[in-house]
């Protein structure tokens, strides 16, 4: 734990606990619910806060925040703990979410957010991001907007960049920026004193507001450059103008930095836009010049590959600069990002190209290929742990060990395609479980938000898996996307290539304060920033180079420490960290130390060393293999850490809450999956209650399980009475079935084994009972199993009956046989019904069923679809909840990390947690083995807070490995940051003293690799390796390499594997521990071969085997090195790389043994020849290794293969040991090194020479301990018996086992017992014969000494008493010792009212309330219809009575007959004299609608009838619609209009022409569309059909061709084409061989339908009518037309079909003209005609794809219009749009396709254009202006004139255009709003002109050009009134200002320039000031006004000042 004096520093850095907990409870999950008053409607727009009645804002209490209910989630959980998830997605969490909206962000909440820390703000807003987005799009008051800006500025300081970006992108929305822009534009016109009331916060700190705004915009530019480039230029340009206006108008100077920053940002965005446009132009014209300029911002590139990436074989990449500086951070990031991205995409691109083009390739070099991959629906069992994604089946791979395999690793990328990779679905592996992988199941998550639709489950995919692991690439690239100029670490070194050296900032700060900084190390002072002298290297116990590196590491900001193998890099790194930890007071206030490594193994090593100096360590990640570090893991800290701070507690609470929400979601998924599984269960019937969860049909809710079974099985009610069900249920209980309710068991005869109830009960009842009660226990039942079970039971009863016939009075076998027969019939029928399951059977194979079954299957289908939809939503939600839990964990982990001193992390984890790492503010970062890490990985581990970077490594050992060799060599991707910094700086510290290797081993790498490397004296004292003659040896061989079975990129060499494993065994037999030996190989494939070979030897179980790459930084005493490569081509792979060779040869301390082919290695290589020379000079190379026996040194053994080690089977030689043992024997083993003292493994195994005192020889071996003699001897015992006794046992103590009789003393029973047992203690085996108090016999053995009187005995037999309160002597079913219960047997009892009830035997029937119908007669003579328990009265029988109005009416007997209940017609007359048309019970009609002829002509000049009530109306325009005078106008089409005066709007808009067309269309139907320019497509149902199916479209639409096989044929030939194609066979002319029913030959053709008429029997009918003249020929053949049933002579029909010269039409029957569609003999001609008709249809109808696209555009346009305020203000317009929407939507309400043809599409387009014109004209009117009624009437008339029939004539268009023009002038007059002028001025003349103008506009006559010109002139005459209107408005404003100020007359004055001002109090001037407008002097002194000022009489009408009085 941290020391207490540091705690305050951490608190101050993170914010005080009081600040963080302000307004927050239970971990920040407080929810505010705003109450709504009952009966009130929700307001359409939310105001951020409500102002209270004082209208002022001097203090915050003036805000009326409406928060009536607030509670934490813990309280909610208590209240709703009983809630169980149902089928709907409606959990307790979504309930909370449903009530949260923009109202959550009230002013108080914004203030709380402003006080929080930045990271806390981000966390809060991420949880409430939906509500915050709604809030940003709502209406703002000025103070709320300013406070929102402050919150966003606070957020910009946060560290969680990814979340911050998501929030700022919402703030970059058009709505919020528009609100902000509007607010900013209002600021220059504000007056401080007035504005403070509504904009107080801004005026309190104006500069602060502008600075906050600039910081927000700057952050947006940095994080969202593209979005900022699109959204911010406009507002930034206006800001400079606004700021200038503010300074000019308000005499206030805004900070210059604000103006400069705004101008710079504006210029920067403009330049970026110009550059972007220029790049686009260059990229389009001259792509060859793009080498130095990227074509786009790298942040716009997707991390996930795209189709374009896979096709672009020459992507834009640039060389990594290894010695020069980069031009900028963006330049650096762009280069690194593109190179790293291409390093992954390049192999993927090549692999897909190889897959598509190289068919002979056995294996793909870059990809693993899986074919026939399918998406699968998971079972309910698969949801125990939620998985974020979908499951696929890729096939079972039996030859893969999934535990060790690197296939399908979590986070890996997959590419799936089902169209040969024309389209590709990219996905990542989201869950990997070995158990499921063995079954071929994998969980994946689609990338880019792709949703898996139902189509994906119906096809096979090819899946490609890149061999590169995607996860490290993804997290690093993602982290780089969030880096920019502001947060980039150590720019001066990494980008600018600065070679200067500086001290770390945390050291400098102390130095500047105190003049020096002194560190302590082992009690020695280190002057890291001082003029003092450093202690010497000897004092610090370091060599010179270690001393130099140590000093540099503590005093320089960037440190590079190179350490060749064995020089102590890790040791020095630990000493540096130790020193830093001992001086924590200098840096801990900034943050912890972070230790970064590439691998988990390296991280474990260094953290294990740090544990010696501190236990305040957190290891991030879960892949640690060191048990000592388990306590330091983040997972362990997360569960066991004691939390101090409020923020940590809140973070922990948030994490637990997110976890619980996820668990609830998992539970709902499991339940939904169970339902889906039940619905798809084969041969099952699902419970009604299960169906009701997802099927909402009312009919289903009226059923229960019993009703469902009745409907499906057709059971009669007589078989399923309650009594029978109860009887059968009791029978089932008797057969050991467990039921929940207590029912009586059947009374059976004592001698019978079955129930008489079963024999009396019909099989229907038994089956129904089984089904019914099974459904009660689970969600479904399998009825076939129930039937089989019942059949089996009947067979069993038949078998019993044959044995027990003597006790039965009847023979039941006959009835049982009948039942079995009936059950089998039912089973067969039911099996057919269940086979029609719609989810398990295709629609094609389903047959019609009983309506009840069809309805049941429909419920099943609906439930399944709804459940699947619910499951999809739940799974989608689980992804969100998983992300929420991940974020919550990340926040909590950050709190844990901040409480510790050392953080250990890998580069991948650091990149994945880059937001947390930035928030950690680690000032010191140490990177171990930095030379083997890609530069991008290291940079993503650093943050802007890094003050001290220590890089430890050796670039001459392992380098970073680029997947693409070209990128590594040509583009320098394999150059690490460590090596690049060395290249730039030149001066770095290299350690030179190696402490590891024997000198002859070190000679292999120096000077061949290192120029200087000294051997420490300790390495010269190593003893020689035992059992081998050489300490270093290279064993040359020529056994060839083998390609790995599981990976094309790796190699194996079995010979080397066998030899080295056998060699390792030999070394262990020399006495070496297994931990002192390591086998290192160069390929992963060889690793698995070595591991498999190791399993042969048990002593090698713990032998470590690893690869070179994984052994970097480690060492061991003896290294056995397998180089693997051995081929004829001399290809050695990466063994030619100096770095890997260096690592391979430098791991051993005392012994190094290498196997390989030196000829291969020295070919075309510069390293291995040098190594070979060293080996030859040391005589350490050869083709055989020499072993030396330790015991017999003269024995030398040469080994070349693993078999040669048999020469030394025990580690020595083949001589016999012959060592004399202590027992006198000699060792029989061959020569062995181990156990030379022969006390462990080599013990003596010869027979023992010792014997017992009686001479019996010892049976054990010599090395075993002698034991007691077990030889048996017959001896006589004390009791006199002779028995066998072991030799070593004393006869006197031996217990006699002989069985003897004995009499027990207590009960006198005789028992058989062992001789040595006493009769006193021996138990009696006789049963107890005592009768217990209950009357039963005791069931125990004799127990005379234990409760002989049975006082505590518990009888277990059945009770013989009757139940308590039993009235029928029912026997108790409890055990005899248990207490009897109330009788619970159900029976019928009669109540006093005469009704019977089913109740318990012990229950009083009179206590039951009788709800059965009453039997009594009432006073009126009718039977009482109430319940028996209710008081009789209020007879409900319907009778006929005479009402007070005189009519006879029917009503209830108890009701009085009044006119208010009469529904007959009223007999009264209205005031007009006409009869009332209302009903008696209703009020008389007020508006008589009887049509009456008017005495005067209408405005149209006609005399017509109107409703009576309108005779006196003054609104003559309203009457015009009743005019029925024929129009008779000649229309544009030439026809006479058939409308009337009212319908045609007095000739303004005529009704559509109704002349009938009558033309015959191509389909054969008549055109039924009235007057048209050309006939539209036919609207009738299409009659095209074939033998397979029929067309379901409208007749005018092109038909879809039938794709079924034609199948037309006979025994002679058969058509092979599809149905819609021309048949490829000629009609068969052979006679039909079949006979008719009459026995005569058929008159048809072979293979065609037989005509039903016989040539002999039906001759007259066959030739009844001569159509073609050949009918009576003896050989005439006839064709049956199946469409109409007529038989036509074949030759005549063919002639009829071929010779007709009709226009293109369908062929018809010559007799009845029915269309022919099924006659195969003329089918080719029919098909030709159909094709011609279809071609014409397509031409008439139009391209369906284009038409559908146009329909979609129509739908969007209509929705846009509906959302417009104009549409919402005019109901008729809105209703018309709704109707039009249904007409153009591509699908009808009945889910039928609806496609508009070309003409309907054009008509709809014209209609929408007209509506758009109407809306545009109305939008120009200010919403505050009242619309004139005549304008509204004009809009209604236009809308009603529009047609939705899909066509519009030129006449209609012309008429509507003129009326639109009339509407235009009406809108213009409305906009003038002259009513204000008429109300305030005496303008009678103008008002008359205005009235005349309106009359002309509303005239019933056509709107001609002359009338339009006249109206224009009149409008021009009214324009002077607009100036008068402005004056009136200004006067009104003046009066409002005077009234608002509240002064009496005489307080208003003018400055010398005429500007108005006021003097308060008494009104006398007491001081001077300056005019706000012009700066002139105003006021005065001593109640005297300045002489150049004057009274403002025109303000309040005052004639003198208020002072003097």
UniProtKB/TrEMBL annotation:
The RZ-type domain covers: 1929-1998
InterPro entries according to UniProt: DNA2/NAM7-like (IPR045055), DNA2/NAM7-like_C (IPR041679), DNA2/NAM7_AAA_11 (IPR041677), P-loop_NTPase (IPR027417), SF1_C_Upf1 (IPR047187), ZF_RZ_dom (IPR046439), Znf_NFX1 (IPR000967), ZNFX1 (IPR057373)
GO molecular function of the protein, one example?
Answer: zinc ion binding
Q: Which PROSITE patterns match?
A: ZF_RZ (PS51981)
Q: Which Gene3D superfamilies match?
A: P-loop containing nucleotide triphosphate hydrolases (3.40.50.300)
Extent of the signal sequence: none
| Skewed-composition ranges (Polar residues) | 50-62
Q: What is its main location?
A: cytoplasm
One Gene Ontology CC term in the entry: nuclear RNA-directed RNA polymerase complex
> SUPFAM superfamilies this protein is in?
P-loop containing nucleoside triphosphate hydrolases (SSF52540)
A Pfam family for this UniProt protein?
ZnF_RZ-type
GO BP terms: immune system process; regulatory ncRNA-mediated heterochromatin formation
Q: Keywords assigned by UniProt?
A: Cytoplasm, Immunity, Metal-binding, Repeat, Zinc, Zinc-finger
Tell where it localizes. Cytoplasm
Region Disordered: list its residue ranges: 1-62
The highest taxon in the source lineage is Eukaryota
Compositional bias (Basic and acidic residues) spans? 1-23
Question: What PANTHER family does the record tag this protein with?
Answer: DNA2/NAM7 HELICASE FAMILY (PTHR10887), NFX1-TYPE ZINC FINGER-CONTAINING PROTEIN 1 (PTHR10887:SF341)
State the name under which the record lists this protein: NFX1-type zinc finger-containing protein 1 isoform X2
Q: Which gene encodes it?
A: LOC107227116
